[in-house]
Amino acid sequence: MAHLLEEYAKNLGVKISNPISKDHFFPLTFTKYITISQIELEESKSYPHYELVLNLLKPFLDRAKIKVVQLGGKSQIRGVDIALNLTFKQQSYIISNSLVHLGSDGVLSHLASSKNIPTVNLFGNTFPAANRPIFSSPSLNINLSPEWDKKPCFSGNDPTRQINNIRAEVIAQSVLNFLKIEKEEINFKTKHIGNAFLQSSVEVIPTSFHPIKLAQNQLLLVRADYGIESNAFMEYCSKYKVAISSSQLIQPAILEKIGANVGTFFLFLDSNWKEDIPSSYFKLIKNLNIELVFLLKDETKIFEARNRYFDIPVRPYNLDKEAPCTVGEGTKFLSGLRLLEGSKEYLSYAHWKKGLDSNNQVLDTPEYWRELDHFYIYESD
Question: Where are the alpha helices (DSSP H) in 127-229?
């Protein structure tokens, strides 16, 4: 595939020449640093795992006293030392003194190339051959792309988010190779990235009340189906915007007290559920503007339940999943799920069931694999 710049030059009848950029001084309190840029306006070029990349690099950067400067972006990447929103000329000055530039393909990667700064470039919506940095030696550019699902989307929006599949350890190792500060390789290998890993979920088992810090507008899922103490349950539902999962109906008087804070009520229907739910209960749920969803663990009963409650969503729950990788002593995971009970925090239901708080070892159990979509599984010695 031809490079975009070569196509422009051919069609316009001009020659490709090195761009000239004017630098405007911007002061920094350190001299050794790498730069990183995040393109947030184009979702297909926005890489979500930079925090993990920086976590892998941090021990090496700290020993070499190298800082990380973020250029642009609406939100600061966790792990950078400073985030700057500067003019293009000021960005040009910062990049001209950088040891390495890391970011998705775009203007800053080409700017770094024009200044012979080593670049690690991520491609999420086009082939590297079409927009790789062209102004410096190929030895100064590492171009990384995912294993394409047939081909890139060639669009600002990618429904499959293919850029997410570029491995964090490959990016970190590429930066480290340019820095040449240590010969050791990064001890990390991605085994699985769950589809819901980046969707932070907080669940609480209401057996005792402890205040919880939530992100703005984040819902708290109250797992009354795991355990419940009435006072703790009421306090969580009174102080937070919540969704509730329960294996029993919540009494109407209680619903009326907490209804303003309840968005969704997930009710588990046992396969032997015999008692009809009175029509007055459905009317109360509707009046309180609560979304009612029935969950069934027995998938064979789905159609029967849907026929019985035809106007209420009935969904399967906790369907068994196969392990995506072998599990050894070095197999660990990050979790997009936080399961809280009292003052303790667990990374999965399986860890809570075994009493393993603050533990990130993968458990080879059916309960663990059912929540696979929330996990980033990796190997590390």
Answer: 128-131, 168-179
Return the closest-CA partner of residue 83 out of 92, 73, 98: 73
What number is the average pLDDT over the span 125-133?
90
User: What is the per-residue pLDDT across 22-31, written as a single tens digit (0 to 9) for each?
Assistant: 899 999 999 9
Q: Which two tokens stand for residue 342?
A: 């009292």
* Residue 281: burial class (beta carbons within 10 Å; 0-12, 13-18, 19+): middle
Confidence class for position 271, pLDDT limits 50, 70, 90: low
- DSSP string of 271-325? TT--SPPPHHHHHHHHHTTPEEEEEES-GGGHHHHHHHTTTS-EEE-S-----SS
**Which residues, including other chains, have CB under 8 Å from residue 379's CB and lie 6 or more apart?**
188, 189, 191, 328, 330, 331, 332
Give percent of the chain with pLDDT exceeding 70.
98
Q: Which residues of 345-377 are buried (b: 16+ CB within 10 A; e: fewer)?
A: ebbbbbbbeeebbeeeebbebebbbbbbebbbb
Q: Which pLDDT tens digit goes with each residue over 286-319?
A: 999 999 999 998 888 888 888 888 889 999 987 7
**N- to C-terminal Cα separation, the chain:** 40
Q: What is the dihedral of CA 149, 152, 157, 160, to 10 degrees?
A: 10
Which DSSP letter does residue 219 get? P
Instruction: Give the sign of the dihedral formed by CA 118, CA 120, CA 125, CA 130.
Output: positive
Q: Name the pairing type of β-strands 375-379 and 189-193.
A: antiparallel
Taking the C-alpha atoms of residue 368 and residue 192, their distance in angstroms, rounded to an integer, is 14
> Which pLDDT does position 2 carry in this prediction?
75
How many whole angstroms separate alpha carbon 344 and alpha carbon 347? Answer: 10
What is the set of domains in the chain, with CATH numbers? 4-186 (3.40.50.2000), 187-381 (no CATH)
Tell me how far apart the alpha carbons of residues 85 and 80 are, in angstroms, rounded to a whole number: 14
pLDDT of res. 272: 57
What CA–CA distance (Å, rounded) separates 43 from 24?
30
- The region, left, alpha or beta by phi > 0 then psi within -120 to 50, assigned to residue 369 is alpha
Nearest CA-CA partner of 108 in 127, 94, 124, 129: 94
Q: Which two tokens stand for residue 127?
A: 């082939």
Q: SS3 for 43?
A: helix
Question: What global pTM score does this model have?
Answer: 0.88
Confidence (pLDDT) at 265: 97
